[in-house]
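Table 4 source record.
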Amino acid sequence: MEDYILVEGFKHIRHQQQSFLEKEMIERTKSLYNWMDKRRSVRHFSNKDIPIEVIENIIKTASTAPSGAHKQPWTFCVIKSANIKKKIREAAEEEERKSYESRMSDVWLNDLKPLGTNPDKAFLEIAPYLIVVFKRPFEYGESGEKHQNYYVNESVGLACGFLISAIHHAGLVTLTHTPSPMRFLEKILKRPDNERAFLLLPVGYEAEKAYVPDLNRKSLEKVMQIY
């Protein structure tokens, strides 16, 4: 059997997915579910350092996500600098105060009460790393011409899901932080004009005393329909 074929002149290599017996599939999927069900959004971080190789591996994992036309329209900016983290916290808190005071509806604020959130984002300075995910709606060619990327939000959203799973797999915690608007991140990090801030995630060990809301996830019957 050939190791590759040509499709419209492009090389396609042979793929062989590892598979398992039914009993092992059930055990593996149950084990993964039980582990992922322990994942929580955490706001109480330790400042304990993490090897940069761990962060690199996490981002490499996120980059295995599928993307429209395989354009991989994302950039992961890793922030360790205390000075930059301070600037990000100050700008994020300014936007958050405006949101809590005037942008959010009463219904929205009421929905947030069980989570115990507020404009204070101390975790942005405490966590040893911040990862800012940028989406790239288009690319520049060698002559400066623009080339469109496809299904950008969907692609970057998938990569963020992989990223969060990889963080949890490493035994670390994170929080999906989305101060709105987030254009200040592009300015602070001096990103090119084809990048837009998509998501901000502090990454680290949880604090010695970390607390999360006592919440329940929807049951399988409420999230799955079989036809």
